[in-house]
Write a structure and sequence with these properties.
The structure is a single chain. By secondary structure, this protein is mainly alpha-helical. The protein has two domains: 229 residues, HUPs (Rossmann fold), CATH 3.40.50; 83 residues, Tyrosyl-Transfer RNA Synthetase (Orthogonal Bundle). 53% of the residues lie in helices and 8% in strands. The strands form two sheets. It has a three-stranded parallel β-sheet. It has a two-stranded parallel sheet with strand order 4-5. Helix 1 links the parallel strand 1 and strand 2. The two termini are 29 Å apart.
Length: 349
């Protein structure tokens, strides 16, 4: 169809899980803030995707969506430079998902790496549902409905983008509009995400209860870091440590300045500083990062209607773009909303 002019379009989303943590910031949000100055960015809150695992209790989905948006705005996403919206407010996602599900082979879904991984790891919930198996098709619809050029992902998410490319390719093979392909094949935009451990040394995750939230006040941040695990080989204060194998050292590498990192490196390896002092410096660095975000967030916390209006405006723009795409999809599939009577030649066939 008609080609879009620059800038290229980026599409990404986050599930509506409530307040975000530092892992969300380092893994995605910080990159999004930079991308909004380079690309035509569509960022959505994936409340339908949240239902794939949390379908039994939907009471907090809407409030969780608002909390996600507040953290996006706090981190620096600007509604004048990107489109932020709620997935379920754009019904075209569901329509395209349905149509794509008709052409997507079952084997493609069963081979998605995270399908078996999550079913094995999330034992407390029944994930044997149609929606959970088919969520990669909904992901594909999320991207394709906006004809996204790029999808920012880490290495572990590349298979999801590749599946979207395969689904787009298969659609284009079956259906075209006057000989023209409807969908581009989106490319993964690999983002380097620094290793960010939680307070127990594992990957920071709400499911592990080891997070530092973007909304945590300074006393809470300091208390959480006091309990953070350190280099297991450093048993006594007099033992030298290795910041390269210490979770607190990882925090310093991401958030502390060069001078502080130099002090940590020398002091830890020589046992010149103790872990308590090192954690205190890390807390100082985190507070410097979080405080401006929390100040920006408060403006919207005091006026949550303003935040909701941003989502509504973004959803309105998203619906317009998605509606144009769906008109093309229906035309390609000979299922347009308008009826055209067959010509005499067609009727005779």
């Amino acid at each position: 169809m008609a080609s879009r002019t620059q800038p290229k379009r980026v599409l990404s989303g986050m599930r509506s899980t409530g307040k975000l943590h530092l892992g969300n910031f380092v893994g995605a949000l910080d990159n999004w803030v930079r991308m909004q100055n380079q690309f035509d960015c569509f960022f959505f809150i994936a409340d339908w995707h949240a239902l794939t695992t949390d379908y039994a209790d939907t009471s907090q989905v809407k409030q969780n969506s608002v909390e996600v948006l507040l953290d996006w705005l706090a981190a620096g996403l600007d509604p004048d430079r990107c489109t932020m919206f709620i997935q379920s407010h754009v019904p075209q996602h569901a329509e395209l998902h349905l149509l794509l599900s008709m052409i997507t082979p079952l084997g493609w879904l069963e081979r998605v790496p995270t399908y078996k991984e999550q079913r094995d790891n999330i034992k407390e919930k029944d994930l044997g549902t149609y929606g959970f198996l088919g969520y990669p098709v909904l992901q594909a619809a999320d991207i394709m409905i906006y004809k996204g050029d790029f999808v920012p992902v880490g290495e572990d998410q590349v298979p999801h983008v590749e599946l979207t490319r395969e689904i787009a390719r298969r659609f284009n093979m079956f259906y075209r509009v006057r000989g023209v392909e409807v969908f581009p094949e989106p490319q993964p935009l690999l983002t380097t995400a620094a290793k960010l451990p939680g307070t127990d040394g594992r990957k920071m995750s709400k499911s592990y209860g080891n997070t530092v939230l973007l909304t945590d006040p300074e006393p809470v941040v300091r208390q959480k870091l006091k309990t953070m695990v350190t280099d297991p080989a450093r048993v006594r204060r007099s033992d030298p440590g290795n910041p390269d194998v210490c979770p607190v050292g990882d925090l310093h590498k991401i958030f502390s300045d060069r001078e502080t990192n130099a002090k940590v490196d020398v002091g830890c390896r020589s046992a010149g500083i103790g872990c308590i002092e090192c954690k205190s410096w890390a807390a100082d660095s985190l507070v410097q990062v979080l405080k401006p975000m929390q100040e920006r967030r408060k403006k919207y916390e005091d006026n949550p209607r303003l935040a909701w209006d941003i989502l509504e405006a973004g959803s309105d723009r998203a619906r317009k773009v998605a509606s144009t795409t769906m008109n093309e999809v229906r035309e390609a599939m000979k299922m347009s909303l308008d009826y055209e009577a067959p010509t005499s030649a067609q009727g005779a066939q």
